[in-house]
Amino acid sequence: MKTEQIIALLPYQKPFLFVDGIEEVSENGIKGYYTFKKTNRFIKVILKIIP
Q1: Which pTM value belongs to this model?
Q2: Rounded to whole angstroms, how far apart are CA atoms 8 and 48?
Q3: How far apart are CA 45 and CA 26, in angstroms?
Q4: Is 32 helix (H, G, I), strand (E, B) or coil?
Q5: Which residues contact 25 (CB under 8 A, 6 or more apart)?
Q6: What's the confidence (pLDDT) of residue 31?
Q7: What's the CA gap between 12 and 31, in Å, rounded?
Q8: Which of 20, 28, 30, 33 is least enclosed by beta carbons within 10 angstroms?
Q9: 1-51 confidence digits (pLDDT tens)
Q10: Which pLDDT score, from 0 to 100, does residue 27 have?
Q11: DSSP result, 1-48
Q12: Residue 50 CA: distances (Å) to CA of 1, 16, 39
């Protein structure tokens, strides 16, 4: 299964889709990654709470 197909199956959408890519798929699970950007609304809210 391709990365795009796996991401399409996730029950999340932007801005709550915290997946940039997938590194590994095995019978035990999936390992992926996400980079938080300063322009992300989620980060802006967190930085107001935790300066």
Answers
A1: 0.62
A2: 31
A3: 35
A4: strand
A5: 1, 6, 31
A6: 95
A7: 17
A8: 28
A9: 788 898 898 898 887 888 999 999 999 999 999 988 777 776 666 666 665
A10: 93
A11: --HHHHHHHSS--TTS---SEEEEEETTEEEEE----TT-HHHHHHHH
A12: 39, 20, 16
User: What ranges do the domains of the chain cover?
Assistant: 3-48
Strands 29-33 and 21-26: antiparallel
Which residues sit opposite 29 in a β-bridge?
A: 26
**Quick one: tokens of 29?**
């699970």
In this prediction, residue 39 carries a pLDDT of: 75
- Look at the block and give the residue holding tokens 């798929």: 25
**Does the N-terminal peptide bond of residue 15 adopt cis geometry, omega within 30 degrees of 0?**
yes
